Amino acid sequence: YAFRHQSHVLNFGFNLGYDKVGFCEKCSSPITQYLGGFQSMGAYRIGQLRGEKLTHVYATYMYNISDGGVLKQPVYAGFVAEAGDVWYSFSTQKIKYSGTLFFAIDSKIGDIYLGY
Hints:
The chain has 116 residues and is mainly beta. Helices cover 0% and strands 57% of the residues.
């Protein structure tokens, strides 16, 4: 869900995933769920969190700090707050938290992000 009001942009979302083959308890899919990277638990490397069950919720806030001047490419500052995890067994599930600060440009060739 995304919402814009003047120079403010809010974006909320969630991801749920579960990989199993049919009703086979001992079988698992060769495709593993994973989290890590920008807007996917940014405090972790891409694919660092792996498993067959996935839960991820996030909220992104952006503020339009410039309309881009001569090139008309808007510039934003924002942050992402996230919670989630990926696991193989419910007994090992532990929710992790992540936050990312970023600058973004809505360029002619697509969005460009610089985050920490």
